[in-house]
Design goal:
Blueprint: H1 4-8, E1 12-14, H2 16-24, E2 28-34, H3 39-52, E3 56-59, H4 62-68, E4 77-81
Helix pairs in contact: 2-3
């Protein structure tokens, strides 16, 4: 599954604010978006990623993405960060 990449990544950012910042700074190689997240939240992220050329991967749910990130709550978006 696609969220295996998130589990294996050395550095990740979780949440809209942190992920947006990493994408804007050019530090993100891939962004993951939960399919069941509120589109009003995720559409800006997807648009930003398209604009700067960062691939977007959709995952099945907030819960699964949160679990892959190692947190106990759902995550709408997460990114693999290149330091």
């Amino acid at each position: 599954m696609s969220y295996e990449k998130v589990k294996q990544a050395a550095n990740i950012s979780i949440g809209i604010k942190q992920t947006t910042r990493m994408v804007e700074l050019g530090k993100s190689s891939e962004v993951f978006v939960a399919k069941d997240a509120d589109p009003r939240i995720t559409i800006k992220m997807v648009t930003l990623c398209k604009k700067v050329g960062v691939p977007v991967t959709y995952v099945d749910s907030l819960k699964l993405l949160g679990k892959a990130c190692g947190i106990d709550v759902g995550a709408a978006v997460a990114a693999i960060v290149n330091e």
